[in-house]
Amino acid sequence: MMTTAIVAILVFGLLVFFHELGHFGVAKLVGIRVHEFAIGMGPKLIQHKHRGTVYALRVFPIGGFVRMEGEDENSSASDSFSQKTVKARISVILAGPLMNFILGFMCFFLIFFSLGVPGTHIGDMIPNSPAQEAGLQSGDKVVEIDGEEINTWEKLVAEIASSGGNQVEVIVNRQGETLRFSVTPRFDEATGRLLIGIIPGLEKSLPAAFRNSFEQSKFIFSEIFSFLRQLIRGQADTADVAGPVGIISLVGQASRSGWMDVVGLAGLISINLGIMNLLPIPALDGSRIIFLLIEGLRGRPIDPEKEAMVHMIGITLLMLLMVVITYKDILTFF
């Protein structure tokens, strides 16, 4: 239980830190005065003031904030948030979710670079598979299939899938010697794909880790947007939607499996958090961007009191939703 709590605090702290660091960094870049950069809520535990900004760690490890001059109040100072251009203010707000996307990518990159990614070397063979029967061996490096150069595992899988079950010519490099084999893929009912029965070896390389991290991030984006589309249409299954309690439980499970699972979960949550923050829901970054875009079109800002009221309603509704989801999470334990 203690381990779960510590790991959860570290994960959430990292997510909040990167998000707020985005707001903070761009605010400083465009010349906005930042009064405080805080991680956590409630009374201050630790604080340090440097060049007019208080850097604070607060008691409750939930959330965080960057308090800027003129963000929530009227200010005529030249270095206030409200006096900057619409483009500059949108950049400040957009930077938070963007940093969540970067953090997610970094988490996946750390995993792929540490463990390696599936390469074109054969790591192992499935017994009595087409590849083994044709004479391929562990350690062979697949360099060509039916005249197509093979430089990634994904390319190898695609070439086998496009064979239509017909015999393919596989060229491999075995200890410096080039060998040719004729292999006929078989349809595997378990996976629903054509296979030749080879298991890739893992290769560590910066380009491969970068490529796989990008593909993993893109896949998560696709899945989240697909869920949101289904949610709007009323077709989404919300049974697996988790709130803070559910996420902490997932973090606890991941921590028992090893640090790689924790890092992977952190990457998933970070990208999810970034996308959720960009939704045009009052109180979230997305709605603030909408208000700024309207200001840009109108040529004058919306009444701050009216905007604050909209955000207050949004916060209230989000808190009620959080209570409902948390109650649902707690019921799953009984």
Automatic annotation (TrEMBL):
Which stretch is the leader sequence? none
CC cofactor: Zn(2+)
* TM region positions: 90-115, 262-283, 308-327
- Localization in the cell: Membrane
Cited PROSITE patterns: PDZ (PS50106)
Tell me its EC number(s), please. 3.4.24.-
GO function term, MF aspect, one = metallopeptidase activity
Chain ranges of the PDZ domain: 119-176
The record's listing under Gene3D superfamilies reads: 2.30.42.10
Protein name in UniProt: Zinc metalloprotease
- Organism equals Anoxynatronum sibiricum
Q: Which gene encodes it?
A: rseP
